[in-house]
Amino acid sequence: MIVGPRPLEEPSSGLAARLASAGVGDRVYRVAITLFAACVPLLLLLIAAEIARAAWPALRTFGFGFLTSSAWDPVNGAFGAAPALYGTIVSSIVALVIATPLAIGVAIYLSEFAPGWLRQPVSFLVDLLAAIPSVVYGLWGIFVLIPLLRTHVVPFLKDTLHLGATPLFSGPNYGPSMLAAGVILAIMILPYISAVAREVLLAVPRSQREAALALGATRWETIWGAVLPYARSGIIGGVILGLGRALGETMAVTMVIGNTHEISSSLLSPGYTMASLIANQFSEATGDLHLSALMAIGFVLFVLTLVVNALARWLVWRVARSA
Amino acid sequence: MPPTDASPAATRTALDVQDLSAWFGAQPAVRGVSVGFREREVAAIIGPSGCGKSTLLRCLNRMHETVPTARVEGRVLLFGTDVYADGISPIALRRHVGMVFQRPSPFPTMSIRDNVAAGLRVRGGGAPSRAETDRIVERALRRSALWDEVKDRLKASAIGLSGGQQQRLCIARALATEPAVLLLDEPTASLDPISTQKVEDLLYELRSEVTVVIVTHNMQQAARVSSSTAFMLAGELVEMAPTARLFTAPADARTEAYITGRFG
Question: Mutating which of B62, B67, B105, B136 best tests the A interface, going by the most A Cβ atoms within 10 A?
Fold first, then answer.
């Protein structure tokens, strides 16, 4: 044929060039987004390294005793993290104990029982709790929650439920306390747990509900036996998200916890958290060791949140794969 | 050829549907259907997509009303008792009228054993002992032809099973409460041919013990497993006849048009 190789050759070489150039663009794009993605873990490592470096003098001076010592004496240069570590963990646990059942209850109501017209407004209002600034929670805590606890809740716990004899509720309640911090935190993390649980429950396939109903399950048995188990790993994820918020919350807790560097078994006594300690003292830190001790507190908080998150991941993974 | 061994006179009517209509909101899905399903035989409901066959099935165990805005009118007599009468609990009814859905829906967090036993534990109080439960689970799994495949891993998760095994597990779960009637809503629509055949064999075996009503869009399946077949179109029952007759000599021209593949 006369049409020969020529007209065929030109377009094919042009196509090859175009294919090659498309390949280059793809490679540039891939390198660029890989760099962006690498920035995130890099930033995390950088922060960790910087905190560890600044905390090193205090950690070297006090060693492991930094975690177990209750001293906090800037004048004599003796520092220990135990009360703040204890306060952070206990206030967060109190918050979880109060918020988790409440939040899951809200989520069950909104996903299973609320009429359609009510679901959106109530969800919106619950979500709005997360939009209130921390300092406003703190103010509300000082002017409303603490008086309420002192005049109504604590007398009820002590006199009506006779819990005054237990270590948790022993001793006087002057106002600012671990309990107040726990309650404030519970309100603050409730929208997070509730929002996640609600979405997870709504995502449970209708086939699961129908399978339970078709077996003769009541509405409650369907929720308890089919819907909640199906959603449990997601709900645990929501609880962990709330715990993460509680561990790091600073302002509102600082305003109601009393900021006392002591460990007390009673929730009615004031306490301290690591975040509050740093926020309160950082600007007025005197001396390098004091500053370094605060950095070491920050390092402990950093490690604690990492450990909690790792535990949470492990828990979700285990629940997801177990029968 | 389909089984036609049971003569109509020898069996009672298990489910008698009388002038049943069902709606989703204002949209009618079933219009004035009257049909009877005889005890201890397999009946099939066929028809094109959207003809109301699944809705009709879901009215039989009152699952239709669990959908918001759904509404039902008419009567469904289960061995003479109107299941829509005042004072009849849909929850109690569903223990006597089991149901299997189109997609296998095992409870993913439960073991194989617990899945089968799930129906025994609902409605509190009456849960049988452990040994009794084991016995019921084995019987249900044997009846659904799954026992040999799972007897060594009853404690394993149900989601480790294949799709066909999961569907037979759902049939076992429905059988465990010893229902008088078993409703199946396109039970093999999501299964491969071999799993489909296993389920069909199983239905054929079950007909001596339980009344089976199966909705299917697969006419060959209806021909294989059922002894009588109902054909529905646009929410109405066109005709119901012994399966052999419906597929060879339908009384209605629309039935003939459908089974010869002229629409649907």
Answer: B105
- Could you tell me whether strands B70-78 and B181-185 are parallel, antiparallel, or unpaired per DSSP bridges? unpaired
Tens digits of residue pLDDT in B204-238: 888 888 999 999 988 999 999 999 999 999 999 99
Domains, in order of start, for chain B: 12-259 (3.40.50.300)
**In this structure, are residues B50 and B77 in contact, taking their beta carbons and an 8 Å threshold?**
no
Burial class (CB in 10 A: 0-12, 13-18, 19+), A92: buried
Task: Give CA separation, B184 vs B98, B103, B206, B247, B253, in Å.
Answer: 8, 11, 13, 21, 27
Q: Are B75 and B111 in contact (CB under 8 A)?
A: no
A-to-B residue pairs, Cβ atoms closer than 8 angstroms: 80
A226 and B157: CB-CB below 8 Å? no
User: What's the whole-model pTM score?
Assistant: 0.82
Q: How close B205 comes to chain A (CA, Å)?
A: 22
Nearest CB to A217 within list B68, B99, B122: B122
Q: Which domains does chain A have, with CATH numbers?
A: 66-321 (1.10.3720.10)
Q: How far is B19 from A204, CA to CA, in rounded Å?
A: 35
Q: How far apart are CA A11 and CA A28, in angstroms?
A: 26
Residues of chain B with pLDDT under 70: 1-10, 123-126, 264
